Amino acid sequence: MSVLDLPSPKQEEWRWADMAALQSAADAAPHATGVDPKSLFLDMPGPRLLFVDGAFEPAHSVPGRVKVERIASSGDHPLGRLAEGEGWALKLASEQAEETVQIAHLGTGGESHVPARIAMDEDAVASVVETYAGAGWANRLTHISLAKGARLMRSVRLLQAEGFVSLRDEAEIGEAASLVSIFLGMGGMGSRIDGALTLTGKGAFAEMGGALLTRGEQKQECAVAVRHQNVDGTSRQLWRAVAAGQSTASLAARVEVARDAQKTDGEQSLRGLLLKRTATVNLKPELEIFADDVKCAHGATVGELDKRALFYLESRGIPEARATALLTHAFVADALGRIGDAAVREAFAADAEAWLEAAL
Amino acid sequence: MLNITNLHATVADKPILKGLSLTVNAGEVHAIMGPNGAGKSTLGYVLGGRSGYEVTEGSVTFDGADLLELAPHERAAAGLFLGFQYPVEIPGISNVQFLREALNSQRRARGEAPLSGAEFLKIARAQADALGMDMEMLKRPVNVGFSGGEKKRNEMVQMGIIAPKFAVLDETDSGLDIDALRTVGDGINRIMRGADKAVLLITHYQRLLDYVRPDFVHVLSDGRITRSGGPELALALEAEGYGAVAA
After folding, report:
1. What is the pTM of this model?
2. Do A318 and B93 touch (CB under 8 A)?
3. C-beta separation of A137 from A164 below 8 A
């Protein structure tokens, strides 16, 4: 694609986006990444699908109920609309439950665009874990629709050593349905995690959050909008950013409450931690409320590690670097703690721990 | 065990300690008393190695080694324990994780094998029981949601688990009711009384000294020790006030 087609930082929603990094990832020639595809899957039962440079790899996959099929372009998101063609679809009938579905994306360079559809009928339950590794520009559009009482837990790891990952989620959450999407952005790549969650049914629950860990001159960002369109909805956006070196992590989170969405309970917590004063964390919390009977809590803070806590740990015998790692891990722990499945949660926590050991 | 000679220290360029000298031998319990602002807590932080507390003159040796040359975690591994006046709350790290990490860091620094989870829990449970702290509290984040008294009790549990050679306890009695004071006093005696151990109790009031009988009492005033004596000095201070006794 040409530079002209990319969003411009002059547009408010894209002001922190690193489109230069995206372009250079797209232009990167394919090369061996040394990543073993097997290492991208957690040791858990359930369907597994591997995509290499956007193409399905049956040899490393056990798709089970997940279908690989052509999916037409949809929506008008500037990056998301590019994701069309072969993708994956998980469709669950009423009361069907799916074990953990694992989707791994391995890139070697260049650009890849993969669409995905998750459609769950009444009271269906599923857990999906996605892992991104390798290089190049991985661009994905995931469309999620949850019928009454359906529950989806999504856990997404961005582990690409280089390149760029752009994710666009579009979700409609029906009556008493629940969507929880937790992201861990910690590879060396640039990223843009972009979400639009709409609570269409009464008493729906939507959560999108996670942790962005940046170092070097890397830039990662999330831009999430949650729209409450019906009564009694609950939403949570809990994001943590840890920035080292000269890196930048940006969190933009928005809650929109429509006039009829009374009794909405929204909570937004954006917190940044600077490991070096040369790093940058941008936070942009936004609330747009048209209903009058709502509860929307929000908080946004950026700071350094608590020096008193650091000394407390050191005074008990823990070396400074380890004490810093422990406190930083604790800082992101509540965001990753939202992952419902203990094995997945522990795997993500171990990834974050490894990042801290390397970055500090 | 601890030798402090002509110690001068500043905080934000303001002189706080102004020529403090003190020797604590193995087997001894010393109490340092003094009015607010005398430099009691500064002494604790300087011994612990907190950044921002700058030593401008003098020396401190611990078992013959230059204490001031050591990083805070190295001082801990050498056997120094600092009990905090205001223990810090650390969300996201459990007491158990924190203390196992601390103890094993110290053990590794001393060339000893780290303890397994089960070995550690056995020690932690014994110390929690001895100090009347519910083991469930040790599974919670460090000091988060603890009352003032629970935080001080937790400091003693930590001291019991770490089993240091030398403890500097900064206002460990503040925030304790009379029953907790007795428990904490008993804990100090149990953990730290021994021929190869020593304690420096920093306190504002005499009441903890009813439970932990000091061998020596010192009055700290304006950054220096102005008077030293036996336990009777603490009683005189309590009766007559710092102004009359320390002058």
Report:
1. 0.86
2. no
3. yes
